[in-house]
Amino acid sequence: MSNETGPVLALSGGVGGAKLALGLYRILPPDTLTIVANTGDDFEHLGLSISPDLDTLLYTLSGNDNLELGWGRRGETWTFMAALEALGGETWFRLGDGDLATHIERTRRRKAGESLSAISHDFRRRLGIAARLLPMSDDPVRTRLHTAPTPPSPASGGGLGGGAGGWLDFQDYFVRLRCEPVIDRLEFAGAADVRPHREFLAALADPQLRAIVICPSNPFISIDPILAVPGVRAALRACNAPVIAVSPIIGGKAVKGPTAKMMAELGLPVDAAAVAHHYRDFLDLYIADEEDAAAVAGLDMPVVLTRTLMQSLADREALARAVLAAAERVRK
Amino acid sequence: MSNETGPVLALSGGVGGAKLALGLYRILPPDTLTIVANTGDDFEHLGLSISPDLDTLLYTLSGNDNLELGWGRRGETWTFMAALEALGGETWFRLGDGDLATHIERTRRRKAGESLSAISHDFRRRLGIAARLLPMSDDPVRTRLHTAPTPPSPASGGGLGGGAGGWLDFQDYFVRLRCEPVIDRLEFAGAADVRPHREFLAALADPQLRAIVICPSNPFISIDPILAVPGVRAALRACNAPVIAVSPIIGGKAVKGPTAKMMAELGLPVDAAAVAHHYRDFLDLYIADEEDAAAVAGLDMPVVLTRTLMQSLADREALARAVLAAAERVRK
């Protein structure tokens, strides 16, 4: 049985994961929630150090997320991008004017020698976020995707249409190429050599821990990079607190993003059960959508069915409550 | 007598100089105007390479200058500054969202090995400016100001109020301290070691040159850095074309900025004649405002009196026409 007043550790990627992180943040006592963010999609662009998942969490937890766009900052303006385009600059990665402040200030402080976590700590404090927000590591990990080899085709005429496949940097794949290339594997470059953030390790080892929540993020590009950090997977297996994942698949589809497309390309069934299988070596309980009852019926682990689509703030809180209630049911 | 169809070379600092540069640009045939910008107030801020005078000229000549503010870009937004302030960043130097594009793209290209002049050339071309726009040099010169020593005062209690004086970086003085410190001298750090831009030297030596125009910029912080570049002052003295300066002083006052305050602090009379004296070793003709007829009556060089205040676009063109007409009067 988990500790009903203990701290909660959540692992999250970008937008989808941040919705549940916000739900947890709103229903838990201040300062009992630690959120560890994927940094595998961090990159350098226009000379700036950009940490998209950390930023999505920063903006979401501080109430500064852009609900209309579904990403970025509330009240964002785009004067910079228009001016950059006029100067012939690279505009495939959309940087809002307010968002730029995060990147410019982070880059300045990184160059002055501060760690990514120290900067994140200061940013979240200044934005009034009481939860701890940590990068999985202060050392760089870079997610790369391998495009599948394709047979030569008379129609393609070379180029991306056919060839031996090759490695793409994450943002090239995700933003510039809009997840269009077919991939056959991923790697987390540098992961073998990094250390998990010490507060992340300490949270995993905390005997008071109430639950570890794998947010409904893309398993391959949001959660796997965190799991690739040495020691994390073993700590999840060894952990006394229940490890609970929330399915990012609803009704056999991804709510947003390339999760379903990637599952198909990686040869997995495109269903909620496949995500639970993906986490099977450490998962204690799986939360799937009511729509996916049939898909998860055969799973050999505890499953809770609930409504998992988070449209309103109330949805986020309700799902967070369901996650914590489920944690009480798990005996380890 | 100058060559009535030859090229014109203008030396300019920021806002005031750019007004006359725009007037010249509008009345001269495309591609006969070369404008050399002061780069002594260039600096690094938030990790960005900022060239304020080049940018003022870029924005002004492309019709993108902000007429309401009197500096910066037209249609500017300030989302970045508000977000930076929320993150605890340095906000004493106001960077507009569109302006940031210039700095970020320039910084990226500088780091990739391009020269300041090559980037300026591309920027002005992309913004549709037919005139040549050159930095005085591709090598860095940094204007610094020495604060005057002040006697100890019981009221000041140390700090800026009294002491031995010291050197201030230009933007610290100009923006952060709003030109408030009393100064007793300036230096142009690095100037002795730089080379003038080769197109600047070529323009100075061009036998077809119609005129060299010293725009009504601050002599000490906008024009003197250009004159401090080795070879420039000698080339101005040796030049066959008439060298004409337009007074930045109107009615005994500066239109904008610290020109008059600096003249007083440097022990000069605060009048239009003092600026002509400042340029006396190479100046062939001085253009002063009608209001300053008495002040310039004793000058031992040709003087043209006209209306020099540039409020409207027509004012800028009229002053430019007066400058070129005056050039025809000078025999060398």
Short description:
Two copies of one chain form a homodimer. With 332 residues, chain A is of the alpha/beta class.
Fold and architecture overview:
The structure is a homodimer of 332-residue chains. Helix content of chain A is 37%, strand content 17%. Chain A has 332 residues and is α/β, with parallel strands linked by helices. The first copy, chain A, folds into two domains: 8-139 and 191-329, CofD-like domains (Rossmann fold, 3-Layer(aba) Sandwich), CATH 3.40.50.10680; 142-188, no CATH class. The N and C termini of chain A lie close together (7 Å).
Assembly context of the chains:
homodimer
Mean pLDDT of chain A: 94
So, the CATH homologous superfamily of the largest domain in chain A?
A: CofD-like domains
Domain module tally of chain A: 2
Which CATH top level class of the largest domain in chain A fits? Alpha Beta
Radius of gyration of chain A: 20 Å
Task: Describe how the helices and strands are arranged.
The structure is a homodimer of 332-residue chains.
Chain A: E1 8-12, H1 15-27, E2 33-37, E3 43-45, E4 48-50, H2 52-61, H3 79-86, H4 97-111, H5 116-126, E5 132-135, E6 142-147, E7 167-169, H6 170-176, E8 183-189, H7 198-204, E9 211-214, H8 219-227, H9 232-238, E10 243-246, E11 249-250, E12 253-254, H10 259-265, H11 272-278, E13 285-289, H12 293-296, E14 303-306, H13 313-329
Parallel strand pairs in A: 1-2, 1-9, 2-5, 9-10, 10-13, 13-14
Antiparallel strand pairs in A: 3-4, 6-7, 6-8, 11-12
Helix pairs in contact in A: 1-2, 1-13, 4-5
